[in-house]
Amino acid sequence: MIARPPVVESRLVQPPTIDDVARVADVSVTTVWRVLKGNARVRPAAQEAVIRAIALLRFTPASPLLHGAPLPMRIGLIRTSESAGYLNAFMVGSLDRVAASTMQLVIEQCDMAERPAAAARRLAQRGIDGVVLPPALCDAGELLDMLEQQRMPTVLMAGQPAGSASTLDIDDFKAAYDMTTHLIALGHSRIGFIMGCPTRPASRRRYDGHCAALADHGLTTEDDLIGTGSSTYRSGLDAAELLLDAEAPPTAIFASDDDTAAATISVAHRRGLNVPSDLTVCGFGDSPVATTIWPNITTVRLPTAQMGTIAADLIAAAIAARREGHAPPAERITLPHQLVRRQSDAAPRRRPRAAIQV
Asked: How would you class 257 by CB atoms within 10 Å of its CB: exposed for 0-12, middle for 13-18, buried for 19 or more?
């Protein structure tokens, strides 16, 4: 019995696309491209399905596709609410690279209340060839395991090296060490620190860098000077309140992200404290909030736009390697950070001692 071709709706407003061919043939877009270019590695059954779908849809590919043009690369980027500010700068670099190539950027929103793997499955259904994971998804173990099992080319923006994925990051330890050293050089000795989510390796590295700088300058890490947040504005409000309620409150607070630093400034203002005269506040990341509140926040700048460009190059190389039948290269790249000083830091105010009564 000869199998009937699948039924296709005829109400096409636009001419059929290569995605339509892939859907009707029940194969990936990459397989359709390989058939169009005469690639011998396509299974005969898949090749026959593609040819039938092309005939059924009356699909006519543009001539460059038949003359050695490179296959397009569909790169998936999973976006969360936590990474929104970070991704704005990242996409400045990645979109320039994508626009000048055959790459296509496919963005999938992930609600952190859902399992990140679900967002990755939705991307897979859209025929992506590789994935870029921003913080904090770059530390999601279940998601990383799933991508590794599927041999999906992956680039992690921060995060621990994992399997065949490439990682692109700064030295969080050194960046936090440098910021704490800067505060000590200003004359601060009671420095509060608000840590990000404790389960994230980057948060831990920043905390370790802060503690190492204190130790190297003869200062101790005191429990009442350490707060814990979750890299959100709301958690920053609570952590800052606790630090400033200490019996001997800090003269400076170093927050491990800019949203938390902005929340700390808000708490200081609510208490009638002047920033930076009464309290120095510093952040990490140089996200948009660092320059949209007053005072502008002294922070650690990440080369985010450059990271976007490099990430696009890394994922393209990994996809190309996989298409050629090779294992994607696992790159480990560390980029330099920069301490950006603005209006939220100053030397601690020297208050006159109380008069000695005889």
From this structure: buried
The answer to whether 207 and 260 have CB atoms below 8 angstroms apart is no
Q: Which residue has the tokens 């043939």?
A: 25
CA–CA separation, 97 vs 170, rounded Å? 21
Q: 3-class DSSP state for residue 65?
A: helix
How crowded is the C-beta side of 188, counted as CA atoms within 13 Å? 31
Residue 165 contacts by C-beta under 8 Å, 6 or more apart in sequence?
144, 147, 148, 154, 155, 156, 330
Q: DSSP of 129-187, one letter per residue?
A: SEEEE-TTGGG-HHHHHHHHHTT--EEEESS---TT-EEEEE-HHHHHHHHHHHHHHHT
pLDDT tens string 275-331? 999 999 999 999 889 999 999 999 999 988 888 888 888 888 888 888 777 777 788
Residue 197: pLDDT band by 50, 70, 90 thresholds?
A: confident
Return the closest-CA partner of residue 252 out of 179, 171, 174, 177: 179
Running DSSP on this structure, what letter comes out for residue 117? H
What sign has the CA pseudo-torsion 308, 310, 312, 318? negative
Q: Is the peptide bond before 295 cis (omega within 30 degrees of 0)?
A: yes
Q: Is the pLDDT of residue 18 over 90?
A: no
Q: Which tops the pLDDT comparison, 123 or 270? A: 270
